[in-house]
Design a protein that fits this description.
Blueprint lengths: L1 H17 L2 H32 L3 H34 L6 H27 L2 H31 L4 H33 L21
Amino acid sequence: MGGLAEQQVVQAIDALAQRNSELAQKVISRDIALDAFQAKIEEKGINIIAQRQPLAIDLRETISALHICSDLERIGDLAKNISKRTIAIGSEMLPMSLISGIEHMTRLVMGQFKTALDSYAERDISKALEVRSGDLQIDALNNALFYQTIVCMGEDPHYMIACTQILFCIKNLERIGDHATNIAETVHYIISGHVPASERPKGNTTSFAALQV
């Protein structure tokens, strides 16, 4: 499921960079596979709890798997949303400097995501903490790209429609980073029995509340 979610994000950004509506549509269509994975994992988890009544580490493992599959499903939804924005942009003018910035942010986010999945597979608490602290860098890049997009919209009104969609894509990437951090914190819980004691490091992120549809 993690591998499919990763593929969905990468291809969604490829579709955006290439202005490839056909690839974006494929990402949207494949989202049903992630939903099916989630349903299957949740069914297994519920059956384990009901039939075996696990305790201690076994219970943590089962509950944590349910939390992680939920994060993976949300990552897939965010990839689907980016693809919908790509289709909405269509042939509208778009500053290539923004595309380069988004590709850079994607590499950073996917690095975090991969490390989070590795920490789960390897039960490596140091990798989980690495992901948790690295989220600050994603927040900083989110802010930089947000303001860069606003500047582009102000400099050339022809960019207005496409840049409005790009704002959502940037925010979706930042949220994917948040879900990677959620996974890392879940791994910490599996290994230690508690979530990290300190508050999650968090940079100032621009509010998109007024833009949500």
